[in-house]
């Protein structure tokens, strides 16, 4: 795909992987619709992007907010070519200590919100000659994560959803890509999480590593698709 003048939705775009993905897409000439909860942070991002950008502050686990975001993006730009389902949350606790509220919060954003963003965007994506959905999953979606059962369960669900979506939508010209990063040096994780050993910042992924991979996946020709990739530190 030639990204120039394409319209891309990026959820969770105020920081980390989402922000860096938006920046790289903008550098390649995409028009952007970015969402997160904080309007101030989104405005900071938009002010630095060299392209036309629509900012939507809302809750990507709320069905009405999602419908408004997608519909307003379509109204503003007249098309949607790329959907980056990046918004996500991880709360890490042993199963015996995990509250129902924390479990539901993760599933509502990581799974239900991703489903809703996809469902609402599909009618517009199908109209594009070449469109792409990228779902940001995790290596936790392929492995057991002690202390992270809720998060791992959501990412297993994201991969199952992505694999099925790819089979359903490829005939409609919509490519579906899932990327599974290992640990990334972002503010994603719960700051109160206690680690037995500190992470070495030189041995974990950077947001740019993941974002660059996402853009590479998108830029493949329309007849090719990296449907699922793992990305991990080369020297953990």
General description of the model:
The protein has 6 helices and 7 strands, in the order E-H-E-H-E-H-E-H-E-H-E-H-E. By secondary structure, it is of the alpha/beta class. It has one domain (7-231): NAD(P)-binding Rossmann-like Domain (Rossmann fold, 3-Layer(aba) Sandwich). Strands 3-2-1-4-5-6-7 form a 7-stranded parallel beta sheet, sandwiched between helices. Strand 1 (7-11), helix 1 (16-27) and strand 2 (31-36) form a beta-alpha-beta unit. Helix 1 packs across helix 6. The two termini are 33 Å apart. Residues 190-197 have low confidence and may be disordered.
Q: Sheet with the most strands?
A: 7 strands, parallel
Radius of gyration: 17 Å
Helix content: 40-55%
CATH superfamily: NAD(P)-binding Rossmann-like Domain
- The helix/strand series, from N terminus to C terminus, equals EHEHEHEHEHEHE
CATH class: Alpha Beta
In terms of quaternary structure, what is this?
Answer: single chain
Average pLDDT confidence is: 93
The tally of helices reads 6
Instruction: Tell me which CATH architecture applies here.
Output: 3-Layer(aba) Sandwich
Q: Can you list the strand order of the major beta sheet?
A: 3-2-1-4-5-6-7
C-alpha geometry: globular
Strand content: 15-25%
Class by alpha and beta content:
alpha/beta
């Amino acid at each position: 795909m030639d990204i120039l003048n394409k319209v891309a939705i990026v959820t969770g775009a105020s920081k980390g992987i989402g922000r860096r993905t938006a920046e790289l897409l903008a550098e390649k000439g995409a028009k952007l619709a970015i969402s997160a909860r904080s309007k101030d942070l989104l405005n900071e991002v938009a002010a630095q992007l060299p392209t036309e950008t629509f900012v939507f502050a809302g809750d990507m686990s709320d069905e009405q907010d999602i419908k408004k975001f997608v519909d307003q993006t379509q109204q503003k730009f007249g098309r949607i070519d790329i959907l980056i389902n990046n918004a996500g949350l991880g709360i890490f606790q042993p199963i015996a200590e995990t509250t129902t509220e924390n479990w539901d919060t993760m599933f509502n954003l990581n799974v239900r919100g991703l489903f809703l963003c996809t469902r609402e965007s599909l009618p517009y994506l199908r109209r594009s000659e070449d469109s792409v959905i990228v779902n940001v999953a995790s290596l936790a979606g392929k492995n057991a994560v002690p202390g992270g059962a809720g998060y791992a369960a959501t990412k297993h669900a994201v991969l199952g959803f992505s694999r099925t979506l790819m089979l359903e939508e490829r005939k409609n010209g919509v490519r579906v890509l899932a990327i599974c990063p290992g640990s990334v040096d972002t503010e994603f994780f719960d700051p109160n999480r206690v680690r037995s050993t500190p992470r070495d910042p030189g041995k974990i992924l950077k947001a740019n590593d993941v974002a660059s991979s996402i853009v590479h996946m998108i830029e493949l020709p329309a007849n090719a698709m990296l449907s699922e990739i793992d990305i991990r530190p080369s020297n953990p």
